[in-house]
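Escalation from tier 1.

The customer reports that the assembly of two entities below gives different structure tokens on two consecutive runs. Tier 1 could not reproduce it. I'm attaching the input and our single run for tier 2 to review.
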Amino acid sequence: MTLRIAALASGAGSNVAAILRCIADGRLNARMRLVVSNRPDAPVLDKARNADIAVWARSHKDFPDRDSFDRAMFAAISEAGADTVVLAGYMRLLSPDFVRAFAGRILNIHPAILPSFPGLHGGEDALNYGVRLTGPTVHFVDERMDNGPVIIQAAVPVSSTDNEDSLMPRIHAMEHRIFPQALQWLAEDRLRIEGRRVRLMPGKPGAPLVSTGISTGVSTGASTGNGPLGPWMVCPPLENF
Amino acid sequence: MTLRIAALASGAGSNVAAILRCIADGRLNARMRLVVSNRPDAPVLDKARNADIAVWARSHKDFPDRDSFDRAMFAAISEAGADTVVLAGYMRLLSPDFVRAFAGRILNIHPAILPSFPGLHGGEDALNYGVRLTGPTVHFVDERMDNGPVIIQAAVPVSSTDNEDSLMPRIHAMEHRIFPQALQWLAEDRLRIEGRRVRLMPGKPGAPLVSTGISTGVSTGASTGNGPLGPWMVCPPLENF
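Tier 1 run:
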């Protein structure tokens, strides 16, 4: 089933761009119906306009409270015909009503291996803690921040001399693979939420099973590879991303 | 410098056994001077006795408080001539005095990618949360539980059908490699604590740089491999373990 996506973003929108690329090259069965931002000057909006995608940009400061902003956003998303909400660096909590309206159809990406380093600074917080492994998580959204059932996680190494400038591109490179992958699994109706765990159902026979691009190894349990930015590991294994 | 290790354990002691194997085969420059347990029936004690290693086994219940137990333990460790304390499944907090007495010389292994899932049930808690990546952490011990600077971390995949019986052997297999590796780096005086981060200094020229055994890939940033129990990733890279 083709996903009809509304992407919510507050910043550069590199994940929105990655999703658009995967739609364009036929790997992700989706249409981007709307790009939403609570920051009318967010660079993601120009990316959307350049791709001829409808935008809805309103400052949350122009609304009396979270509920009223989220209601207006919900109306715009409904009007655009979107059935799936993608949080791609959306730096606000969603109201419970909004989350319930899209139950099981809202995905978020977070730059750390949740439940480590929830919140707005997952990359920086991991560095400051001194972890040796970190990487992004895609999860279903529930009413608590960075809390819902995990769909896919990736790990990259952190060296003792890394700073944000050296580490974040490694994390972003994995975000741009696992987020489209998670969405494609949703499009294929292969994700089952069982309590806190997410089961990935088998794909159709004949569907692609081997990672493309810079991946160098695939197993039943995880993809591992060694790309231009270094080694990485992803579970469940990437299929076509 | 040859480490003189006192190992503290409350249970089976599989990490003690792994350390003893690495000492025996010459990869870990250390002597096991004492095995300590707060559970006089802990299986680790038989492993130690069978290897002709001195043991100190006292129930903490026979002492009025933590400080008095830890003082008696400290006396036994000092008497045994140990300079390095290894927590290998030691299920008690250490008193601040004990931690200070061995500052920078106490290492702990935890079955989760800290700071995720601290506490006594790191493996089970990760399963119940629904993570897709987990694995052990070796860290210096400070006065807070599972909190000190991280030396090395490993990740293994978690499938949606894993249970403790299927997951824990994967975690333990990585524990048995990264704990001896961390100790060997300590023996080579290559670990520098810089705030919360641990810097690994370069090894001597000519020292082994490639993982042995089931490792299949090594890079500057991490070791990755695909062993009998599945894929894994370790940072910093394993050298000879």
